[in-house]
Amino acid sequence: MTFTQSSTPADRIDVVIVGAGFSGLYMLHRLRGLGMTARVIERAHGVGGTWYWNRYPGARCDIESLDYCYSFDEDLVQEWRWSERYATQPEILRYLEHVADRFDLRRDITFGTSVVAADWDESRNVWMLRCDTGETVTATYCVMATGCLSTTKKPDFPGLSTFRGQWYHTGQWPHEPVDFSGKTVAVVGTGSSAIQAIPQIAKQAERLYVLQRTPNYSMPAQNRLLSADEVREALRDFRERRRLCEESEAGTPLAPPTLATYEVPPEQRSARYEEGWRRGGISSLSFAFTDFFTDEEANRQAQDFARAKIRQIVRDPKVAELLCPRHHIGTKRTCTDIGYFETYNRDNVELVDVRDNPIQEITPTGIRLSVRTIDVDVIVFAIGFDAMTGALTEIAIRGVDGQALQDKWTHGPLTLLGLQTAGFPNLFMITGPGSPSVLSNMVVSIEQHVDWVADCLAYLRDRGVDRIEATVEAEERWMRHVAELAAGTLYPRANSWYVGANIPGKPRVFMPYVAGCGQYRRECEEIVNSGYTGFVLG
Ligand code: FAD
Ligand code: N01
Predict the structure, then answer these.
(1) Kind of pairing, strands 207-212 and 184-188?
(2) Model confidence pLDDT, tens digit, residues 164-193
(3) Ligand nearest to the CA of 55
(4) How close is the Cα of 149 to the center of ligand 1, in Å?
């Protein structure tokens, strides 16, 4: 545990923030600007959140670096230089460390400390946070900047403790490089993390087994170095570029499609998909036509295109077929890759289907499947996260009358705007369930949420009030709205982590808001402009 010197009084502060990733760092900066006392509690031994923990080979963002960054400070925007179209994990971590230094944030961050409980004390109008170090932090407001993808799914395979080799989870990667040379390696999972890591591991390992349960769609990143001219131009137009992001659906500046699939003849359709594939990135195909997420048949056209690409790239037809996804494209997060499908043309790589041949147990020397055993030196679990709610429900949060958040959310998360939940006054979530969060460029969504919270606290202070709570009625209305929007799309049909399907026993609820950053921003502004409708102040 490292205690840094704090500039805030020890007994009661204005705001306690949990988490020092993109969200927590900016929240601290905004609160300081308002003259409020604030302190951040962070489990890690450094800043960065996602980019501190996910150090696996190949980790990088899938939103262009020029957009996957803060916009709140013009000097910061202009002085930082991204080197690649999609920045690597080390580069993004360096950026966040730079931000922490530049704005002198570390002196109010306590590292190496986990918050294990948070109790609302109605009589004193405070949150009391208990840490694993035994320390208690008392604050009028609490901001959970704990991340949507920060609680890893545990590899609870029987026999794992007997394994004599090394094993790793992509979301908790060691700080020192892992050397796969001469090793036989198994990667479990074929989501975004695996799809980034597999081509890198394959280059080093003697032999690589990829244990796939469900194949995924992956678009070529078409990554490249950014030229000085391109960066200069993007930075010159940064404000306009960012405005487009803020008003868009996905938080990116790319012009949205205007035509539906069947409004164009078949040969032009393929040309549009091809154009997207050449452009690359997560929206390669989803930006071809307006009905990608809503029309089953239109979606199937894009699926067919993606499957045809896999069959073109992968030489062994049996392997290609096994790699072809069958779900509606886009309804599980589309991956982006650098040479993922090409990796299956290597002699040292074998794709193993663990759908029909599931993992039975881990043995001291490898992995026993139902019909065969694979001996390995190293296992990489790329099995994902308890997304969106995991980091919140693993803290014992108790609100008014001692109500536990875990109990309130038994049938799924309930929030107003993904920012607050009724019965838990003065508690805010950054990119909580019910907000665009994981369906958007998250930095754009984070800045908007942090600004909303900071402006709200300033508003309360100006009116001599220090309590805000969402009403049950407004929350119910919001959740109905979020569910209705999702029901108009194909999203809820997939067994994705968006609906909690990856965590056994998790209630099946489609958690993100699908109507996009711009529409969501307008809904937030309307609520503020009408005097915080749906919230009780004071
Ligand atoms: P995080 O970065 O997750 O930070 C939360 C912090 O809270 C963590 O440091 C954690 O240790 C801390 N914390 C949690 N619980 C506690 C506790 N109880 N006590 C103390 N500390 C706690 N999004 C995009 O938009 N584009 C991308 O390209 C992209 N790429 C990604 C790649 C990977 C590998 C992953 C996993 C996610 C990616 N994401 C991406 C999503 C990414 O999580 C967000 O973009 C963003 O980094 C989230 O920032 P955050 O501060 O909200 O949360
Ligand atoms: O996790 P995932 P992730 N036996 O849940 C498999 C962001 N991100 O870490 O689908 C066998 O997507 C599971 O199989 P199945 C991004 O938002 C972005 O890869 O459940 N297999 C699946 O294949 C992303 O969506 C980037 O059948 C098991 C895989 O493990 C999110 O983080 C990079 C299993 C998990 O895939 C999560 O991605 C990385 C079991 N028991 C992450 N349990 C970028 O590119 C799970 N699996 C920017």
Answers:
(1) parallel
(2) 999 999 999 999 999 999 999 999 999 999
(3) 1
(4) 5
